[in-house]
Amino acid sequence: MSKIIELKNVNKWFDKFQALKNINLEVNQQEKIVICGPSGSGKSTLIRCINRLEEHQDGQIIVDGNEISENTKDLEKIRAEVGMVFQQFNLFPHLSILDNCTLAPIWVKKMPKKQAEELAMKNLERVQIADQAKKFPGQLSGGQQQRSALARALCMEPKIMLFDEPTSALDPEMIKEVLDAMVDLAKAGMTMIVVTHEMGFAKEVADNMIFMDQGQIVEKAKTKDFFENPKSDRTKLFLSQIL
Amino acid sequence: MNLSTLKSDKKNLNSFIAFGSALVFIGFVDIILSSFFSTNITAFLPDKISYLTPLLFGLFGLYLIRIEFSGNKLLDKVNTNFNSSNFNALLTLLVIFALIKYIPPLLNWFVFDANFAGNTKEDCTSGGACWVFIKVWLNRFVYGLYPDTEQWRINTAFLTLFLLVGASFFVPQRLKKYIIIFLLFVYPIIGLKLISGGDFGLKYVETGAWGGLSLTFIVSAFALILCFPIGTILALGRRSKLPAIRYTSIGFIELWRGVPLITVLFMSAVMFPMFLPDGTYVDKLIRVLIAITLFEAAYMAEVVRGGLQALPKGQYEAAKSLGMGYWRMHFLIILPQALKLVIPGIANTFLALVKDTPLIFVVGLLELAGMVNLAKTNPKWLGMAMEGYVFAGLVFWVICYVMSRYSQNLERKLKTER
Questions:
Q1: Radius of gyration of chain A (CA)
Q2: Which of A95, A205, B86, B363 is the most exposed place for a label (fewest CB within 10 A)?
Q3: DSSP B246
Q4: ipTM of the complex
Q5: What is the DSSP letter of B115?
Q6: By C-alpha distance, which of B235, B249, B242 is closest to B311?
Q7: Burial (CB count within 10 angstroms: exposed 0-12, middle 13-18, buried 19+), residue B2
Q8: Could you say which of A88, A94, A104 has the minimum Cβ distance to residue B323?
């Protein structure tokens, strides 16, 4: 399996505060990685650096063979290959669910409208929300909105999907429907990096687990080892608190 | 019958209602008699008290009928809406009395004592408004000094405009796009050419002769259409990451917002020609249009910026994460939402713009208010300022009210839940 994302010695500061310290990470195609850790540990910042919603100041980030830096031309093209699902869904409230899904394929990928709509319906069906296609985001429940957001990202047919705490803003009963959709996606072979506190999901899906604290990767291990035999004390403490 | 305590209660409901209403009724009789029949039924009292008697009667009457949950539907309604406390009762009475006292004289001036017939000032004899003045001058108020024989050109231009705008509401979506493009980019040129003439066998009419309501419309329409995109671009510029663009935008906005429109218009008339090479001449109407447009664009920029700032960061991030660049992100995601948020502010700026147009008198262009100003100084029509300004005020009010209603409609139509 080949590398699709590579981070080498990545450092990032917010003013004086160092959010990421010497991050080294490799992600292979079709690999599923779950990142966990206490809040403020840099998990979100890390994945937001991968599609440059945040800028790193030091080190290299290489996505699908392209290095991402301030000199990157065609940053939009790279972003189009990296789908992202946000904690707050961030659907476009002035557009229907269907239009949310077709907008980027039509305008960024120049796909004909009809084809874009077919693709959108296929992806909406995949997250089991096709019947809501004509509605507006404000008319849907949180779980439905998050699944729509997932479908919207999938419509760009990305090679990599990033999830930034996708279930943290949801009511408990809606978490499952979103996680189910993500499990399906994982089974279909998508490369996924997921920041989440849902350890059940992690155990089911993840190939590798990463534990972060204070901007550093404290531990990276195969999922089974991570839960059964964590090496660092910090990881043990964290797991004992959330499991 | 037991009124000794004077504290209203349900037991003696009917007595209180009867007595209280009687007092209120006396109050009303008093005010009506004194306003219309010059009889004062309380003349035996000292002047100041006599003046206040209707209020005192009314207040005491209302106090007596203030009975909660009386069971009488009408009474309960009156009590909750107009008579919930002594202070509210006072306000209610003051408003009603003021209406009784001042509406009839106003109506008399406007309608009943007004003069409609005739052709000269001398026909106005009955003491009310002299609408003859408006009637005689109406042509000038609408067309300014534009030659009578050529006025069909203005009529045609505006009629076409209204037809096109009307059509754009009714034709199918597919054609609508073309009509709007035509309206925004082609029609203004055709319309202006038709009105100014000079080619196609049309007599040339210099802009100094344009005026009246038609000029109000021309100036407002052009400034409205132009200031909106310029303002939007300035708003984006002010939020740009590139220092050169950002500081230029800030400088531009703050410069134009910091000077009064009237000085800007003076400058456009006096100073601007000095910067032009010898022999070039820019029509003063064009200069004024540019000045007003840039002035209002600065305000528009700040209104739009308010909308841009109200959008959550997540909208930008979602657009970026889907691979949209700056312009796609703004045109497809950000501006549609931001502009919708600031429709009230945009309408506000547009109304202010329309009402700013009379200021173009400083360069010698006379729109509606300017023409009124001119007409009232005509020796044959001295003393008609009131009628003229009331008329101009009414016309401006109608224009602005229509725009305001339209903006409210638009707001309702575009409303989506967040």
A1: 18
A2: B86
A3: H
A4: 0.92
A5: B
A6: B235
A7: exposed
A8: A104
Task: Classify domain B132-146+205-417 at the CATH topology level.
Answer: MetI-like fold (1.10.3720)
Nearest to B321 among A77, A79, A103 (CB): A79
Judge whether A210 and A34 are in contact, CB under 8 Å. Answer: yes
Q: Which residues of A touch B410 (CB under 8 A)?
A: none
Nearest to A8 by CA among A77, A69, A53, A74: A69
Burial class (CB in 10 A: 0-12, 13-18, 19+), A76: middle
Q: Is A193 on the interface with B (CB under 8 A)?
A: no
Query: What tokens were used for B245?
Result: 């663009």
Query: CA-CA distances (angstroms) from residue B242 to A55, B246, B248?
Result: 17, 6, 10
Secondary structure tally for chain B: helices H, strands E: 19, 2
Beta strands in chain A (DSSP E): 3-14, 17-28, 32-36, 58-63, 66-67, 82-85, 160-164, 191-195, 208-213, 216-222
- Of residues B174 and A95, more confidence is placed in A95
How many Cβ atoms sit within 10 Å of the Cβ of residue B76? 14
- Establish, for the pair of chains A and B, how many residue pairs have beta carbons separated by less than 8 Å: 75
pLDDT at res. B373? 85
Dig out the tokens for B306 from the structure: 């308010």
Cα radius of gyration rounded to whole Å, chain B: 30
What gap in Å lies between CA B138 and CA B135, rounded to an integer? Answer: 5
Tokens standing for B61?
Answer: 């009457």
A90 touches chain B (CB under 8 A): yes
Does the pLDDT value for residue B4 go beyond 50?
no
Sign of the torsion angle spanned by Cα atoms B82, B85, B89, B92: negative
pLDDT level of residue A1 (50, 70, 90 thresholds): low
At residue B242, φ and ψ (nearest 5 deg) are -85, 120
Exposed/middle/buried for B28, CB within 10 Å: 0-12, 13-18, 19+? middle
Choice between A33 and A65, residue whose per-residue pLDDT is larger: A33
Cβ–Cβ gap B418/A93 under 8 Å: yes
| Strand, helix or coil for residue B32 | helix
Is B324 part of the contact surface with chain A (CB cutoff 8 Å)?
A: yes
What is the C-alpha to C-alpha distance for residues A96 and A117, in angstroms, rounded to an integer?
A: 12
Q: How far apart, in whole angstroms, are the C-alpha atoms of residue A174 and residue A128?
A: 13
Query: Which span out of B220-229, B265-274, B370-379 was modeled with the highest average pLDDT?
Result: B220-229
Strands (DSSP E) found in B32-174: none
Q: Return the domain boundaries, chain B.
A: 3-112, 132-146+205-417
Which neighbouring-strand residues pair with A203? none
**Chain A CA closest to residue B416:** A94
Q: Is the pLDDT of residue B131 over 90?
A: no
Residues A186, A26: contact at Cβ < 8 Å?
A: no
Q: What is the rounded distance in angstroms from the CA atom of residue B366 to the CA atom of residue A78?
A: 59
> How many Å lie between the alpha carbon of B390 and the closest alpha carbon of chain A?
43
Find, among A157, A165, A128, the residue nearest to A40 by Cα.
A165
DSSP E strands in B248-384: the ranges are 366-367
Instruction: Write the DSSP symbol of residue B130.
Output: B
Residue B280: how many CB atoms within 10 A of its CB?
7
A123: which residues sit within 8 A by CB, 6+ positions away?
A101, A151, A152, A154, A155
What pLDDT sits at residue B44? 76
Distance (Å, whole) CA B72 – CA B78: 10
Check if A237 contacts B (Cβ < 8 Å): no
